[in-house]
Amino acid sequence: MIKVLFVCLGNICRSPMAQFVFKQIVEEKGLANQFEIDSAATEGYNEMCHAGIHHGTREILTAMHVPFEQHYSRRIRPTDYAYYDYILAMDDCNVEDIQAIVGLDTENKIYRLLDFTSNPRNIKDPWYTGNFDETYWDIVEGCDAFLKHLKM
Ligand code: 4NP
Fold it and tell me: Distance, CA 29 to ligand 1 centroid (Å)?
């Protein structure tokens, strides 16, 4: 079982999008039983507000026929580091914030999702850009590249 935690700042836009896009990809490939997939935030504000998935993420997932369930923001915990095999951040700031919470990445588990592509870069935050389409295609590119990295 490969345990994957997608992480962004708020856990309402990018990381739940990645969680459900990746889930769809592994289900379509018949690999779902080999993965445990979840997502989390680096800040606690949205957890405190019991915030669900942003409507922009829900709209693009619906438009792209990506099934999703209810997900409430939760902040990454120090114990997540031992539990998960891969902690996949959306940008450099997420990586710094994750390390501030879980400690140093001594087991090389923390990456940016797009680090697995031929063009490593941050995934822009649609909370600020309003561009959920761009986020979706970046996430698809990253999830495909991550699965290739796993040779699955
Ligand atoms: P996310 O976007 O990190 O992709 O979920 C954000 C969501 C909420 C906030 C910032 C970014 N916020 O400030 O509440």
Answer: 30
